[in-house]
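Below is how a single chain appears once it has passed through the pipeline. First comes the sequence as given, then the structure the pipeline wrote out for it. We keep one example in the README because the format questions we get most often are answered faster by looking than by reading.
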Amino acid sequence: MIIKIATLTLNKSDKLAFLIEQLKELQTQTQKESGCETFIFYQHKQQLNTFILFEQFKDQTSLDVHLTLAHTQNFFSFNLVRVTQITPLIELT
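Resulting structure:
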């Protein structure tokens, strides 16, 4: 299992509403992928331009495929955010 938390920061504050719309669409489409276990965005309560992504994919291949899919590439094409941190996690079993 591939588990990560990513912190994303909005590039231009005047695009906040558009970003939220695009994050919701990316979340909806990604959750339909066969290798996706969890893919949820959260907005920081005090810093509204900051978002947290919690993602779990079945394996590295599933994540690699996700990054090539049209809905993911479409989101990236808008250049709305910069990734400020990625934290890989290991599940305690």
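The chain has a mean pLDDT of 97.

See the next section for the split statistics.
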